[in-house]
Amino acid sequence: MSGEHVLQRPIYGGVFGEDGGYSLASVPCVSRGLHATRYMVIQAKAGVVLSISEDKALALERARVRILAANDSHHLQPQSAVQGELWPEEALLTAPAPQTQYVSRRRKAIYDSSAGKCHYCGRALDLSGNWHVEHQLPRALGGGDDTLNLVAACVRCNLSKNDSTAIEFVTRKVGG
Ligand SMILES: [Zn+2]
Fold first, then answer.
1. What is the pLDDT of residues 36-49, one digit of tens each?
2. Fewer C-beta neighbours within 10 Å, C or N terminus of the chain?
3. Radius of gyration of the chain (CA)
4. Which residues keep their CB under 5 angstroms from ion ligand 1?
5. φ and ψ at 93, to 5 degrees?
6. Nearest CA among 119, 176, 105 for reference residue 151
7. pLDDT at 111
8. How far is the CA of 77 from the centre of ligand 1 (A)?
Protein backbone atom coordinates (compact mmCIF):
# COMPACT_ATOMS: atom_id res chain seq x y z
CA MET A 1 0.00 0.00 0.00
CA SER A 2 2.08 2.92 -1.16
CA GLY A 3 1.29 6.42 0.02
CA GLU A 4 1.35 5.41 3.68
CA HIS A 5 3.79 7.03 6.04
CA VAL A 6 4.36 5.96 9.59
CA LEU A 7 4.37 9.00 11.85
CA GLN A 8 5.99 7.44 14.88
CA ARG A 9 6.96 4.14 16.39
CA PRO A 10 4.12 1.87 17.51
CA ILE A 11 2.45 2.75 20.78
CA TYR A 12 2.16 -0.38 22.85
CA GLY A 13 -0.58 -0.83 25.37
CA GLY A 14 -3.30 -3.10 26.61
CA VAL A 15 -1.19 -6.09 27.59
CA PHE A 16 -3.44 -9.13 27.90
CA GLY A 17 -3.49 -12.93 27.89
CA GLU A 18 -2.38 -15.38 30.58
CA ASP A 19 1.10 -14.13 31.62
CA GLY A 20 0.59 -10.91 29.60
CA GLY A 21 2.04 -12.48 26.48
CA TYR A 22 0.13 -10.31 24.03
CA SER A 23 -0.13 -6.62 23.53
CA LEU A 24 -2.14 -4.31 21.35
CA ALA A 25 -0.13 -1.71 19.50
CA SER A 26 -1.35 1.24 17.51
CA VAL A 27 0.64 2.80 14.70
CA PRO A 28 -0.26 6.37 13.79
CA CYS A 29 0.24 6.92 10.09
CA VAL A 30 -0.83 9.04 7.18
CA SER A 31 -2.80 7.12 4.60
CA ARG A 32 -3.96 8.78 1.36
CA GLY A 33 -3.37 12.18 2.93
CA LEU A 34 -5.45 11.41 6.03
CA HIS A 35 -4.33 10.66 9.54
CA ALA A 36 -5.10 7.03 10.27
CA THR A 37 -4.33 4.38 12.83
CA ARG A 38 -3.41 0.76 12.31
CA TYR A 39 -3.90 -1.65 15.18
CA MET A 40 -1.84 -4.76 15.60
CA VAL A 41 -1.82 -7.52 18.15
CA ILE A 42 1.68 -8.65 18.98
CA GLN A 43 3.05 -11.67 20.75
CA ALA A 44 5.99 -9.69 22.02
CA LYS A 45 8.28 -12.45 23.23
CA ALA A 46 8.13 -14.28 19.89
CA GLY A 47 8.26 -11.06 17.84
CA VAL A 48 5.08 -12.11 16.09
CA VAL A 49 2.36 -9.86 14.68
CA LEU A 50 -0.87 -11.83 15.02
CA SER A 51 -3.13 -9.41 13.20
CA ILE A 52 -3.21 -6.00 11.57
CA SER A 53 -6.32 -3.95 11.00
CA GLU A 54 -7.64 -0.42 10.89
CA ASP A 55 -10.36 -1.63 13.24
CA LYS A 56 -9.33 -2.39 16.80
CA ALA A 57 -12.07 -4.95 17.45
CA LEU A 58 -11.28 -6.72 14.18
CA ALA A 59 -7.57 -6.87 15.04
CA LEU A 60 -8.40 -8.45 18.40
CA GLU A 61 -10.84 -10.92 16.85
CA ARG A 62 -8.39 -12.02 14.12
CA ALA A 63 -5.69 -12.52 16.74
CA ARG A 64 -8.06 -14.63 18.79
CA VAL A 65 -8.87 -16.79 15.74
CA ARG A 66 -5.18 -17.30 14.97
CA ILE A 67 -4.35 -18.25 18.55
CA LEU A 68 -7.20 -20.77 18.59
CA ALA A 69 -6.12 -22.21 15.22
CA ALA A 70 -2.55 -22.52 16.49
CA ASN A 71 -3.72 -24.33 19.60
CA ASP A 72 -5.77 -26.68 17.41
CA SER A 73 -2.87 -27.51 15.15
CA HIS A 74 -0.60 -28.16 18.14
CA HIS A 75 -3.23 -30.57 19.27
CA LEU A 76 -3.51 -32.29 15.89
CA GLN A 77 0.05 -32.27 14.59
CA PRO A 78 2.42 -34.95 15.75
CA GLN A 79 5.69 -33.36 16.83
CA SER A 80 7.59 -35.05 14.00
CA ALA A 81 5.57 -33.05 11.49
CA VAL A 82 7.14 -29.79 12.61
CA GLN A 83 10.72 -30.97 12.46
CA GLY A 84 13.15 -31.42 9.61
CA GLU A 85 12.39 -30.34 6.06
CA LEU A 86 9.15 -28.50 6.54
CA TRP A 87 8.33 -27.24 3.09
CA PRO A 88 9.60 -29.63 0.45
CA GLU A 89 6.94 -28.30 -1.91
CA GLU A 90 8.62 -24.87 -1.98
CA ALA A 91 11.34 -26.28 -4.21
CA LEU A 92 8.69 -27.20 -6.78
CA LEU A 93 7.79 -23.55 -7.31
CA THR A 94 10.67 -23.06 -9.73
CA ALA A 95 9.17 -25.79 -11.95
CA PRO A 96 5.90 -25.19 -13.81
CA ALA A 97 3.15 -25.75 -11.27
CA PRO A 98 0.74 -28.53 -12.21
CA GLN A 99 -2.92 -27.62 -12.27
CA THR A 100 -3.73 -29.54 -9.13
CA GLN A 101 -0.70 -28.95 -6.98
CA TYR A 102 -0.45 -30.92 -3.80
CA VAL A 103 -0.95 -28.69 -0.78
CA SER A 104 0.21 -30.14 2.50
CA ARG A 105 -2.15 -30.11 5.43
CA ARG A 106 0.16 -27.81 7.36
CA ARG A 107 0.48 -25.35 4.47
CA LYS A 108 -3.31 -25.39 4.18
CA ALA A 109 -3.57 -24.71 7.93
CA ILE A 110 -1.27 -21.68 7.63
CA TYR A 111 -3.30 -20.45 4.64
CA ASP A 112 -6.49 -20.82 6.67
CA SER A 113 -5.12 -19.12 9.75
CA SER A 114 -4.13 -16.17 7.54
CA ALA A 115 -7.71 -16.17 6.16
CA GLY A 116 -6.41 -16.87 2.63
CA LYS A 117 -4.75 -13.49 2.47
CA CYS A 118 -1.26 -12.11 2.68
CA HIS A 119 -0.70 -11.43 6.38
CA TYR A 120 0.99 -8.12 5.63
CA CYS A 121 -0.88 -6.47 2.76
CA GLY A 122 -4.18 -8.35 2.75
CA ARG A 123 -3.92 -9.44 -0.89
CA ALA A 124 -5.98 -12.58 -1.61
CA LEU A 125 -3.82 -15.65 -2.23
CA ASP A 126 -4.55 -18.70 -4.33
CA LEU A 127 -4.16 -21.74 -2.08
CA SER A 128 -2.32 -23.79 -4.70
CA GLY A 129 -0.56 -20.75 -6.13
CA ASN A 130 2.77 -19.09 -5.50
CA TRP A 131 2.74 -17.74 -1.95
CA HIS A 132 5.27 -18.07 0.80
CA VAL A 133 5.21 -19.50 4.25
CA GLU A 134 6.75 -16.64 6.12
CA HIS A 135 8.63 -16.74 9.42
CA GLN A 136 7.49 -13.55 11.16
CA LEU A 137 10.55 -13.67 13.35
CA PRO A 138 13.20 -14.94 10.93
CA ARG A 139 15.04 -18.15 11.73
CA ALA A 140 18.24 -16.09 11.55
CA LEU A 141 16.98 -14.17 14.58
CA GLY A 142 15.91 -17.25 16.47
CA GLY A 143 12.34 -17.55 15.16
CA GLY A 144 10.89 -21.04 15.37
CA ASP A 145 8.47 -23.16 13.39
CA ASP A 146 5.71 -22.45 15.88
CA THR A 147 2.37 -22.05 14.12
CA LEU A 148 1.96 -18.51 15.42
CA ASN A 149 5.31 -17.54 13.92
CA LEU A 150 4.26 -18.80 10.48
CA VAL A 151 1.96 -16.82 8.20
CA ALA A 152 1.05 -16.71 4.53
CA ALA A 153 2.71 -13.91 2.60
CA CYS A 154 2.57 -12.84 -1.02
CA VAL A 155 5.79 -12.93 -3.02
CA ARG A 156 6.23 -9.14 -2.90
CA CYS A 157 5.91 -8.88 0.88
CA ASN A 158 8.08 -11.94 1.38
CA LEU A 159 10.87 -10.46 -0.72
CA SER A 160 10.73 -7.00 0.81
CA LYS A 161 10.59 -8.27 4.37
CA ASN A 162 13.94 -10.09 4.09
CA ASP A 163 15.38 -10.75 7.52
CA SER A 164 13.56 -8.02 9.37
CA THR A 165 11.15 -9.02 12.11
CA ALA A 166 7.43 -8.75 11.45
CA ILE A 167 7.18 -5.84 13.86
CA GLU A 168 9.97 -3.95 12.09
CA PHE A 169 8.46 -4.72 8.69
CA VAL A 170 4.92 -3.72 9.62
CA THR A 171 6.15 -0.56 11.28
CA ARG A 172 8.24 0.37 8.26
CA LYS A 173 5.48 -0.37 5.82
CA VAL A 174 2.18 -0.35 7.60
CA GLY A 175 -0.47 -2.35 5.82
CA GLY A 176 2.05 -3.80 3.34
ZN1 LIG B 1 1.63 -9.02 0.74
1. 888 888 887 777 88
2. N
3. 16
4. 118, 120-121, 154, 157, 176
5. -70, -20
6. 119
7. 93
8. 27
